[in-house]
Each structure stands twice: as structure tokens, then as C-alpha cells.
Design goal:
The complex is a heterodimer. By secondary structure, chain A is an alpha/beta fold. Chain A has helices at about 45-55, 100-105, 115-125, 140-155, 170-185, 200-205, 225-230, 250-255, 280-285, 300-310, 315-325, and strands at about 5-20, 20-30, 35-40, 60-65, 70, 85, 160-165, 190-195, 210-215, 215-220, 235-240, 260-265, 265-270, 290-300. In chain A, helix 2 (about 100-105) crosses helix 3 (about 115-125) and helix 2 packs parallel to helix 4. The chains are: A alpha/beta, B mainly alpha. Chains A and B meet through helix 2 of A and helix 1 and helix 4 of B. The structure holds adenosine-5'-triphosphate (ATP) and magnesium ion.
Amino acid sequence: MNSENTAAIEALDVAKHFGQVEAVKGVSFCVNAGEIFGFLGPNGAGKTTTINMLTGLARPDHGRISYFGRDYTANLKKAQHLMGVVPDESNLYPEMSGLDNLSFCASLYGMGKKERETRSRELLASFGLTDASKRAFGGYSRGMKRRLTIAAGIIHHPKILFLDEPTTGVDVASARRIRELIAGLKSSGTTVFLTTHYIEEAQRLCDRIAFIVDGRIVRMDAVAELLRQTHGKHVVELTTSGSLTQMREEVLRGFSNVEFEFPADNILRSITEQALALAPLIRFLEERGIAVTEARAVKPSLEDVFIRVTGIEVDRMKKEKEKKGPQ
Amino acid sequence: MKQWIAFWNIFSKDIRTYYLKPPNLSWGIIFPLAWTLMFFIRSGGDVDLFALLPGVMTMSILFGTTSLLSVTITFEKKGRSFERLLLAPISLEYLMLAKTSGAIMFGAINAFVPLIIAAFIVDLGAVSWALLICGVVLTSVVSTFLGLFIAVAVSEVFEAQTFSNFFRFPMVFLCGLFFPIERLPVFLRPLSYVLPLTYGGDILQGAVNQSALMPSALSLAALVVFCAGLFLLSVRTIRVKWIC
Ligand SMILES: Nc1ncnc2c1ncn2[C@@H]1O[C@H](COP(=O)(O)OP(=O)(O)OP(=O)(O)O)[C@@H](O)[C@H]1O
Ligand SMILES: [Mg+2]
């Protein structure tokens, strides 16, 4: 391996248990320098535990952790100057202002006063927090807290940024803004390790993704590669005026060369290798008193891949998350 | 890396956010004042201030330092902001020195409050200042590290406070500050000699009254050993319990 394509992060058979719970059961992966790597999984899958082990907040039972080709397993402290960490809960000082919090975080990395002030103000501006810079962090809204916590994570220009569920619990606009910031970091050369349970987010942001379920990586690949496997198929979704429940068998019999799914009472999805001529299907339904009110081609998504690989319903994952909510 | 920048900012942040707050200031100033006053009133104004001073100074240090560690350490651990410090590229030993340096300074300053008050009442000309300052600083370090040891051993702020009282009050009575060790029951005496405050208090007795039980070199050495032991034990506890 030459130095140019040395992995930024390399984990080899890293495992961790807490009492009876095997939180992480020996995961191995590489994160290439400059990419956004997604760690995608449901609650309790072991995402945070993995980040804690990689950053030196938890001690692995066994395994090896390397950064840029150097083994730091025995002394992760030595690698901490390389990394920025944005935890799943904001852990800044509530009684200090946004500006003071950032400046304090910068000082932990040895940055001088002038440099700290400049960098803090620059980040406050680019995260849209200049107006709130003098206010106590404790009084920030959830989205503002998230943004300041991310700013604190990158204050010292880390080579690698760990983001633990950066958009959980923030509104749509804030989430979009955070995603833009993350994309911006990638273009400035930062390697990003991102955990999330939002599949669309992972699809939009990440270069490569690992699905983690129950402490194990069940699938890991480039997003483009994961999608390509569903790309071969043509999926069309028809919405109808009435219920299709009584008619399922008949439809399946009538078009035996087509694979169908019925995601809802009045929705029918056809999955075929070749583009399907829709007229016969629409006519077939109309003859039975059901009008097709809408037809659209469905683009393949990572969600389908995720469900196929993990067997986990995406909606369930989201709901659990929203119930729990972040700080 | 410029580690001193991290050290200085951790120190000054703690001073600003905790030490200069009224509740903490009160520990250091009002509490020793109240004690002095209590003894003063009890003796009907006819009190030997010199006999009282080492004890009051030691207590000011003990209560001033130990009560702060439950905030700067246990509270920050509970609120997770301590994680940020653990992620900083500075060694754990250095970090803990930075986190305790404020309390050490605070404790030493507290010790001088009763001394300054006494200076208005009696002549302090006979005090050996060099020994006094050594004694105050080392006592402050040792009681801070005792507070640290308690703060890292528990996970709740109230536990830290309860446990420090569990140590503090018996120590005040056993370390010869207000009841001479010779007057303690025989079976309690060995206990006195395993308490760091016995040595701190004895140094101050020597410095103020020239009436130390032990040679000051011995007491100073004992304090240094206690400081090192408590600090290393605390750091080890953090390594084992917090980075698990
Ligand atoms: N300190 C701990 N003590 C005991 N069990 C723990 C501890 N930390 C994590 N666990 C357990 O390890 C498993 C993995 O937890 P982890 O927090 O890594 O999951 P996660 O993927 O980050 O979940 P979430 O999406 O809810 O954040 C869970 O079963 C959890 O209960
Ligand atoms: Mg988590």
C-alpha cells in the first residue's frame, strides 16, 4: 500500500462487550482518506460504541485500530490530535457563550488566542450563529446546539471528523444546512465517519456505507455499487381510485411474468427486468372498475437495499429514533 | 503542541465558571470565619489565637478544596462535558493537574483568610513564613487530591459530597487539630498517622507555634508521598472506570 492511498482509518476485528451485552462483535473496515463513510444501523446496533473505541473513549476487548497506516491501538491518545468528534449529545458548557465554548475547545488543541478568536468567529459565521455568539449555549435551540457542537468538532482543522447522528432531532431546514456543511468538509479534504439512521441522508452524503446490525457489519460497499444492484430493475408504482385488496390474486394470475408488491391498499408496484408496457395493466384494472389515478417510475433507493440486507423495516427504525430523540 | 495553552485555559475556565461563584466563595471565607468566631465566643474572648490558627487554616483548606472537586470533576463527568477533555490530545495526568490546579490555589488562598484576620489582632512576628507557605501549599495539594480521589470514585454529585463529609469530619477530629493526638484514645492514635491532614496541621503548628510533634522534614515528606499516591490512584481510577 503506498502512502497516497493509505486508509485514514482502519479497524480490524474490533470488539466490545458491556457485561452480558456484546455491543460490537468484531467489526473490520477501512475508511479512505477524503471520503465520507457512513455507519448505518438501528438503535443499539453499536454505532456509538464503535466511535468511542475509535476515538479513545472506550477500550476495545480486542482488535486493532490504525490511522493513516500507523497502529494506535495501545495509545489512542497519540492519535487524538488527528480527530474531531461530534457526539450524539451536545456536550458543550451550558453556562458559557457560543464564542467562549468554541474558543475553549480550540485551546485544548493548543491554538493561540488570536488564532482561536479568528477561527471561532469564522465558524460562527459559516454556521449562521454570529448573532447568538454571546448568548449562553444552554439557551440555544436544538438545531443551534447541533451546529455549534459540529463547529466545536472541527475548530482545530482535524484530518478526520467523527459525527454521531448529526441530524437526529433537528428540523428539516437545520438538517439540510448540516448536510451542506458536511459535504463542504469533504470538499476541503476532511475524512468523515458518519453514523446515522436516516438512509436518505447516507445515500446523499456518503461515498461508502457499512450496515451495522446487532454489533456486526452485515454489508459494506460503495453507495453507487449498492444501488447498481437494484438499478437493473424497473419499478413502477400505480395509485388507484379504489381498494386493490380483493384483486391481488387476480392481478398476480393475470400478469404472471411480472413481480408485484402492494405497499398500501390502493398502491400497486410492478417490478420487472424490462420496461413494462402499462396499457394492458391499466385496462385490466379499469375493466374491474378501478381507475388508475397516478403512475410513476420509482427510482431505486438505498432503503430497498437496506431492507433486503438487514430485514429491518425502515419506518420502525425511524420511529424508535424519534421516540428516543437526542439532547 | 503547546500544552500549556490547554492547561491555562482549563484552569482559567474553572476559575471563571466555578470558583468565583458566591456559593463556592462562601466555603472558603464564611466557613472558617464562623469557626473562628465560634471558638472565640465559646472561650469568652479569652482565646489563644495562636493555638487556634493552624487548625482553622487547615480546615479552610480542607473544606475549600474538597467541596469544589465534586463540581469540577463529578458534575462535568455527569454532564458529559468531561468527554471533551478526555478527547483532547493531552495526557490524562496533565489534564488532571490542570483540573485540580484551580482548587489547589483556591485552598491556599483560603488558608490566608484566617491568617490575615489574625494579623489585625495579634503579632505574627514569630511565625516561620517559609515553613508556613510550604505547609499551606502541600496541605492544599493533598486535600485537593483527596477530593479528586473521592470525585472520580463516584458517579453522582451528591455521592461525592456525602463521601467527602464521610472523610472530612472524622479527619478534623482525628488529626490533632483541635484535640491533641496524645489525648486521643490509644486505639485511635494509629489512625491519626495515616491521615494526611495530621502532617499538614503539624507543619502549621510548627510554623505558627513552634510546637510541632514531628520534625517538619518528616511531615513534608509524608505529605509529598500522600500527594503522589492519591494523584496516581485517581488517574488510575479514571483510566479503569471512565475509559472502559
Ligand atoms: N456503557 C454501557 N454500559 C452498558 N451497555 C452499554 C453501554 N454502552 C452501550 N451499551 C450497549 O451496547 C449496545 C450498543 O450501544 P450503542 O450506543 O453503541 O448503539 P448505537 O448504535 O449507537 O445506538 P443508537 O442508535 O441508539 O445511538 C446497546 O445494547 C447498549 O445498550
Ligand atoms: Mg448512538
